[in-house]
Each structure stands twice: as C-alpha cells, then as structure tokens.
Structures
1.
Amino acid sequence: MSQANALRPRPEVTDFLSTRRSRPARSLTAPAPDRDALTTMLTLAVRVPDHKKLEPWRFVVAEGAALSRLADAAQARMTSLGASEKDTGKAASLFRDAPVVVCIVASPVADAPIPEVEQTLSAGAVCLGLLNAAAAGGFGANWLSGTLALDRPFLEDVLGLSEREWVAGFVVLGTETAVPPDRPRPDVAALTTWIDA
C-alpha cells in the first residue's frame, strides 16, 4: 500500500467533520462555484459506498435562467396541488433565490441484485458527500427536499426524470453571508447500544 493511501490519523479531517454544518439556503448568495469547482465537488461527492458499482444516482444542475424557469414551474405546480401560499412561495424560492441548485437524482437500477433501499441510501450518501465537498471548497450548502422531490409531474415534465427516478436532494450552493449558530447535537450515548458478549 502506498504511503499516500495508508490509513493514518487525520486530525484536520476530524476537526473539519466536527465543525461541519449546513448553511441555510436563504443565507447563500452569489458567487456560486463555477463549473470547474462544481465538477470537482461532484467528483468528490460520488466517492460513496455503492454496492456492485451500480451508480444509482445522477445530477441535474440548474443555474442561470434555468433557475427562474424552475421557480415559475414550482410555483405553478404547487398552486395546482392546492398548497398553501407559504408552501408555494417556499418551493418557488428554493430555485428563485438560489445561486445554483444541484438536484441529486435517485436513479435506482431495476432488477439489480442490490435492494432498492440500499441504492437509495447510496444516493443519500452522495447528498452528504456534496455538502462536505462544498464546505471543503469554501462554499455554503443546504440539502432540501419537499413535495416536488417526489411529485411525478414536476419530476418528469419539468426536470426530465424517468418514471423510476426521484430527487434525493435539492442542494443549494453559494457563498455564505452569515455564519449561523450551531444547533444542539444528538446525545450519542443515549442513541447507542453496545453489544460485547
């Protein structure tokens, strides 16, 4: 094993992970990562567990004028669903106010020897991978979902997804305008059962 690939303590990585947190989407503004930086982030994001190398995920990146088009489509779809004004505005602002949005598409492989739930977990790992890659690159990121992540007409007619695909996460990326306070963290001791016999 080469020295570069040898496992060893990495306190700087531990420090990064212990302080990593999402940035509220409303606090993110331009500039967003450019395509080169974003390509690097996406390359890092797909370094996840993926049993049988199925790659049961892909990306749809919305930037520029596409964000306004998606905001209008989100507003129209939420209105047609009878959503509240608040929920409709929130769905539209996800796109309208974002510097860039990466849709992490869960794209399960049919008839694979790997259960679909495991493929879904891999897509979720890509979402977290993108949050970590963005933070490592100096950008804020927020992982969002909501009604439209599973709404067939929006997914197929607006985003062009297949009938088997859905959005595991809408990840908003941009430059943070304020550092949010940390939130209370789970009590790991209360959530852990140790089995030693």
2.
Amino acid sequence: MRAVICGYYGRGNGGDEALLVSLLQMLPSEIKPIVLSNNPRETSQRYGVETCPSRDWWQVFQTLKKADIFIWGGGSLMQDVTSFASPIYYGGLMALAQLLGLKTIAWGQGIGPLNRPFTRWLTKKVLQQCSLVSVRDDISAHLVANWGIRPIVAPDPVWALDAQSVKGLSDLPAPRIAVNLRPHPLLTPAKLDKLTQALIDLQTSTGAFILLVPFQKSRDLPLCEAVARQLRENYQIISLEDPRQLKGLFRGVEMVIGMRFHS
C-alpha cells in the first residue's frame, strides 16, 4: 500500500524532521511512504524514501491518485496564528485526498489555535472524514471532541524517535545547558537582552557550558549568534541536521531553555 505523508518537511526544521523520522520508523513494512517535501531531493537522499514536491500541485495530484492512504504526519499543521495559508494548504490536501477516495489519518496532531471561522470549519470537516485522528495534547482533544470526533490522545511521536550520540558532547564541561530560541513577536530585542544577561549570570553562578541550538537554521541561527556575541566563554553554537542527533544532544545536557515545541 502506498501512503502519502504530508507535513512541514524539507524546510530545515529539526522538530518536523524528527516527526517524519519517527513516523517512517513506525510504519508497517507493507506500507510504502511517499513524502511531500519542500526539498524532495534532500529528503529522498537523507531518508531513502520516494518524494514529491509539496508545492507542485499537479505532481501532488498525480501522486495522490496512485496512493491508498494520506497521513498528516505530526505537528501543528492546522493553526492560523502564524499563518492563515498553512491550514488552508494542509486542509485542502486532506480534502483532496478524501475526494479521491483515500483513507485519511491525522497523526500526532496539535490542533489550533483556530481563530478564523473558515479555518475552524475546514479543520472540522476534514477531521470528521478521517479514518483515525490522534492528537498530542488535551486541549486539541477537547476541541475535536466538541466536533463529535473521538481522538486517540497520545504522546508526541518524537518520544519514540531513536537517538544518536553527538561526537564530542561528553567532552564539554558540565553542567551543560541547551538554549533553543526562535523568532517570535514576543521575543523583542529588549527581552532578548534580558535573557542573554540572565544566561551570563547563570554561567557566573554555576560555571555552566551553554549550547546554543538552532532548530531551523535559516531562522534561528541569527538569534544564536546574537546571544553568542555577548557570552564571553564556555559556549558553542551547535547546528545538527539529523533529528536523531538532536535527540542525542538533549539526552546529554542537564537543562534546556527552549522556545520550539520539540526542544
């Protein structure tokens, strides 16, 4: 059976890549995955799977026509806080798969916030037609239960991800603190300055080694570099593309200060 897997893949986001790897290692052997990716060549080479360009609607349509199953592969795909277009895109793909007669599954989802009537309506309609809905938190479960859907409430799938050790991590002095920041309207320059000063004070009192960890390098790295310029010593920016190594990194630290969900 052929399963099209849809998510925020091929965009360099460590958390979403971790979700993809978790799903791929869970799939039964008789299921052949086809991953919709923003960078299909990289995704194919990295994970050894068939891929399809996620923004090429004609190719996506042809791929869906030849498939049996459509899976939302984890994450907060259906929310309209950071993007109004995002739930329309993912909801539209789910609706198209249902029109084509595919079995559809919403897997490991964080549903909402959905502030606009249209995105709430679209999410409700496609979830009501799913063969299975699993969510990763009680708020999402309560929301979809109000729509007459009985979801499975389960831990976020990344808990099942296999970890790989990070070379040289154990050689760094302890305690080790991982810091994961991301751009956000609430993280103003003034608040970033306060956070940076707090890290300096924490280092002074504990002798901690700071690991600045960008999850999505294109967006998070500038913040890491801004903090690094203020730290005098005992720090390192560590950028990992393999989500299994990211999990290994977090296994090797004593504390995490994180903004992204999967940190």
